[in-house]
Every structure is written in C-alpha cells, then in structure tokens.
Amino acid sequence: MPPSTAGEPLTEVPVRRIDVRGLDIAYRRRGEGPTLLYMHGLGLSQRWLALYERLSRSCDVVVPDHPGFGDSASAEWMRDFDDLVLHYAELADLLGLGTFHLVGHSFGGWLAAEFAAFYPDRVRSLTLVTPLGLRVPGEAPADLFRMGAEARLELMFNGRAGAFLGPSSDEERLERLLQDYADLTGFGRFAWNPRYDIRLDRRLGRVTCPALVIGAEEDRVLPASHIARYAELLPNARVAVVADTGTPTGHAIVAEEPEAVAARIEAMVGGQ
Amino acid sequence: MHELEFYAIIDRTYPWFPPADDRDSIGIDLSNGVYDPDLGQEVLEQVVDGAQLAERLGYDGTLIFEQHNTPLALFGNALTGAAWLAARTESIQIGAVGPMINAYLSPVRLAEEIALVDALSGGRLTVGFPLGIGAQYHSMGVMHPVHARARFHEAVALLHRIWTEDGPFAWEGDFFHIPYVNVWPKPRQQPHPPVFIPAAGSRETIELAAKYRFTYQAILTPLPVLLRNCQLFRDLCEENGYESDRRQIAAVLGVHTAESDQQAREEIERHALWGAQNIVRFQFHESFPPGHVSLSSLRAMMSGGYRSSDPSQVTWDEMVAGRTGLIAGSPETVKQRLADITGEMGAGRAIVAPEFTIPTWLQRKSMTMFAEEVMPAFRPPGAKAVWQRQPRAAYQTASERVGREPRRAGHPVVSVPGQGRVDLY
C-alpha cells in the first residue's frame, strides 16, 4: 500500500468545532502561510487527507465538513447552493480568513465554483479538481445516487477504494453505511435535481482570479468534457491533467495523487 | 368475531419482461420497450373486470395502487384509473392509493382531481397518499427525496384545510405560496373522502395519519414491528385527543383462498416467489434515495425492522409465517389467520391482495371463496357490504335531490333591456 493512498488515519490533526449562527460545524486546520480553504467531495468528509498534510507545509489549510456531512450538523433549512455559499461566507468571516485561495474537489469543486461566482473578490486563486456542476449535454456524470457506498467509492477510485478504506468490521460497516447515507443526503440536498447549475455558465464569467481546472486520465465519474467546459467559462483558467506513471488516475486524485495535486495547487498559491 | 371492512386490491402486473437475474431492480430502468399495447390492454381490462367482480361479490371496496416506471401495476395515475373504475361500477367504494403528492406541482391541482372523481363517482372515492417508494424519486423530475417529507406534510395540511374551510384563503407555506386557494367543486363526501396513509413504519407518517384522523394503512412490515406501530398509532390518536376507531387501522394482506391449505400453496407458491424475486427486488440504494428516511429510522430498519433482510430471498414458509403478510389456505385457515392478525393489530379494515400474476380464473375462484366463506364471519348479521347498509353521499334520484332541500346561497339574476334585473329561473 503506497503511503500516498493509504487509509491510515492522520489523527494528529484534531477536529475543531465552530458555531456558525447555530450550526455546529466541524473543521480541521493546520499549517502556516497563505490561507487555503478546501471544499471536500462526496465520500471524503471526516478526514485529514495526505494532500492536506502536504499542503500544510506551505499554507494555512482549512478543511470544514460541509453542513450535513461528516461531523458537521445538518441544516434542514438549507434549500439551495445559495444557502451553502452564504454559510461558507459566514464561516470564513468567523474564522477571519480574509481573502484566500479556494480549492474544491468533485461536489466541493461545484461548491467552490458557486462561491467564487458570488464572492470573486474574496478568492485569490481557484483550483477545481474534477468538479461537478456544469451541464454538458449528452455528457452527464455518473449517477452517484444509483449505487451503494462501496460501489461509489470504487467508481471514484477506479476500483482501488479498498486500499484507501482499509479493512472494517461489520459494526464499522453499518456505521459507515449510515455515515455515507448522511453525506449522500447532504449532497442530494443540493445536487439531486437538477444535477447541474445552468446559471454557472454565465456566473463564472465573474471569476477573474487565476484558476486551474484539474482533470484525471480516466475519470469514471466525470467526463473530460466538463474539465474543458469549466476552463472555457472561467475567464482566467488553465487545465491540468494529473497523470500517474503506472495506472491511469481517476476521480479521486486528491486522495490517490496527493504529491502531484499538491504541487499544482502550490503553484497556484505561489502565483506561478 | 370483530367486524372488518374488505377492500379488494385488483391490480395486475404486466409480467412479460425478461427475468430479473442480475438487474438491480425493475423500478427505474427496465425499458418500457418491452411493453406491448395488446398485452397491456389485457392487463388493464383485467383490472376493470376485477372491480366489477369485487362489487358483485360484495366487497366493501376495491383498490388500485399508483405505480411509476414499473410493470408492477399499470396505473401511473390512480385517480384517472379510479374515475374509469367508478364509471364501470355502481356502488362499491373505489380506492386510489394513490396519488404521490410530491409528483404534483401544486396540491390544489390534486384537490381538484380528488373532488372531481369523488363527485362523479357519487361519493365513492377513498384516496390514499403514499410518500412514494424510493425508486420512484428518480423518474418524476419534480420529486426531491431530501425535502419530500416536509413538502408532503405541508401538502396534506393544505389539502385538509381545503376540505375543512371555505375559500378563498391564502396559503403561505414553506413549499407552496398560493394567494387564493378556492377549489371547485368540493368533494361529494363531506368534509372529505376517506383517506388512507400507507406507512411502512416511519413514525412521522404514522403521526400524520393520527393527527388528521386518517386511516393508517400498515404495509410490508414484519409482524412484531407492525404490532408496535399499531399501538403507536393508537397512542398518537389519544395524544391528539380522541380514541381511534378500529377502521383507522387497515391491514394489508396477501390472501389466497382455495379448497385446502395444500391446494392454496400449489396454486400460488410460484407466483408469490416470482413476486418476491422480481417485484420487491430493490437494493438498498434504490429503496432509500438521499434523505428519504431519517438516520434514526434507517438505523432502526437496519437492525431488525423493515428491509433489514433481502425481501427477494424470502421462502414460502417465511411468507405464510408472517414475514410478508401472506395468508393462503382453506377458508377455515384464512378465516382464522385473518381473525388472529387483524385482532392483534386492532384493525377494522383488511386490504386483501391476490398475487398480481395469477390467472384471472384462479383470482376469481379465490375471491369468490373468500367472499362466500370468509367475509360473512366478519360482518353484522345479514353480511351486507357497507355500501348496502349505509346510504351513499350522492342522491340517486331527482326526487331525492329535492327532498334534501339543497342550500342555494344566491339566485342568479339577469339584466334584460326594458325589464331591468329579473330572475334567471
């Protein structure tokens, strides 16, 4: 098991909690340097990934669990991305993040794109890793609602999820099933229908900061056309495909290729 | 023996599709390319025949479900089906269980349909509001499982207000903002038709049924859980300030009656197994789209309640032992089991379903034996159906209409040149 993809819990980063006007939010934070707010993807809450650890060498990395995901409370009143974007604006204010570099993966990439469209002045750079959120006719992402948790992870990891998750007991599997259902509900709240935001097509024109859209070699969740489309809509964007020397990379590159993804993000933060 | 009202489920399955085998479910993406209109016509006509038969046999009601995206039953709109069944029958109560409220953009539209079918049927509609099984959320475009419960509850509250308060009134809800709610016509049955709320065990749904004095239609749950839910329902009725009527609990049972227990098994075992292996074949994620159940309900279900084991793996012995609510046997066996189960449940209504795929001659034999040799034991002397004992809501003759002295709130007048305002009649 290569250390970069290992499921070993990096538990030394403690969970912190913050009250966002009555909403109990869990987050993890480590490092010094420019602030980097990271928005996680489906199936990757409650974790301190090797990617974050790597980024924390040069950045102040802040990774909240979205409302309803992981260790964060769910907000029944949330209806739409507007609510979620406003929540993150408040969270950033409470944590005193000022302006920051914004990174989002998968569902978190969609959310980061929405946030940047609403608050372009707060975002110093935007990195979207295999981001959902756009409509590319005839090129719908995989239907993540029509598979079990394990199948979904296997799709994201191109069949290598076992190495990421590690072994588990029956009891852990039940708890994981329940947690996955909670996270899927958090995801579904915003992304059930429609499964894209056609308004992003226009709104992304507001995001003039440097942007990078990172794709994988063989993304089984998100067709490559979405990466190209994001780059087309963002006024100041480049595309990068993170490759592996061995097997082709998949949707979960943030977990599987922390070094390569971190290097790209660091380059964005460093203004290169 | 306690009294029971009997509703005959008359739905039929369209069975002409390839075996399920390794397909995830038949509820979402079994292509409708397998549908043949001639074979479909046959199935639909069998349902109409079933309603007419149920009436002749003296069942209190007949009942169809609403299904979407599946060959399980072909009534994608139960109220449209109910309108047709009402036109083809005279007296029997027509159950439509029923419109999935969340598939409607506005509850007002639904209130109109209910009132119209009830009025046209002479006040014979019973309407049920299922939340909709998980698989159906993928295929309607307007249903959102995360918001489903909240929207459903608000819609039921609005329907109840439509039925119990004159319009126009403004509805200012979380999901619906309707400045002028003022539905015409009103239902024939006042203040509203009987309402069934199907519930597999969700406390929120049972609470809803208790709150509005609706009927809790208890479905697809292992018996011990079912009995707990029935007691919960009665307790909740008390919390709402009234004692529940037995008829507010309806047991949903698969029933097949034959000459002997062995004969019953021989006649339907394969059909029962086929149904289990094909019709209720839903994987976890198909049954529970995100937010469709609360985490606490899900935890309870996964540790012993509804769907804690794969329903497609059920055996005959498990089915007749109570796991799926199947009663099959001689009239004596059926009578005894029915008395036991509805007695334990405290149910005053039994919704009895055949296997949806058995030949119609066999369905006719079973329904006839049940009507002649089982139903009378659960009825007052004379063994008449409810619709024979109680007058229906609608008048039946012009004379009766006049005799009722209907209230005319105003009289139409017309301005005629040279005559001024004169009465129209």
Low-confidence stretches of chain A: 1-8
Describe the main β-sheet of chain A briefly: 8 strands, mixed
CATH architectural type of chain B: Alpha-Beta Barrel
Identify low-pLDDT runs of chain B.
none
User: Over all CA atoms, what is the radius of gyration of chain B?
Assistant: 22 Å
Number of strands of chain A: 8
Pair of chains with the largest interface and how many residues each contributes: A-B, 19 and 24 residues
Overall 3D form of chain B: globular
Number of helices of chain A: 10
Instruction: Tell me the β content of chain B.
Output: 5-15%
The structural class of chain A is alpha/beta
Largest sheet features of chain B: 8 strands, parallel, barrel
Write structural notes for this entry.
The complex is a heterodimer of chains A (272) and B (425). Chain A has 272 residues and is α/β, with parallel strands linked by helices. Helices cover 36% and strands 18% of the residues of chain A. Chain A is globular, with a radius of gyration of 17 Å. Chain A starts with 15 loop residues before the first strand and ends with a helix. Chain B has 425 residues and is α/β, with parallel strands linked by helices. Chain B has a single domain (5-423), classed as Luciferase-like domain (TIM Barrel, Alpha-Beta Barrel), CATH 3.20.20.30. Chain B starts with a strand and ends with a strand. Classes of the chains: A alpha/beta (272), B alpha/beta (425). Chain A binds chain B through residues 76, 79, 145-148, 174, 177-178, 181-182, 184-189, 192-193, and chain B through 24, 28, 138, 141-147, 150, 283-286, 288-291, 295, 298-299, 302-303.
List keywords for this structure.
heterodimer, A: 272 residues, alpha/beta, Rossmann fold, eight-stranded mixed sheet, 36% helix, globular, disordered N terminus, B: 425 residues, TIM Barrel, two-stranded antiparallel ribbon, 13 strands
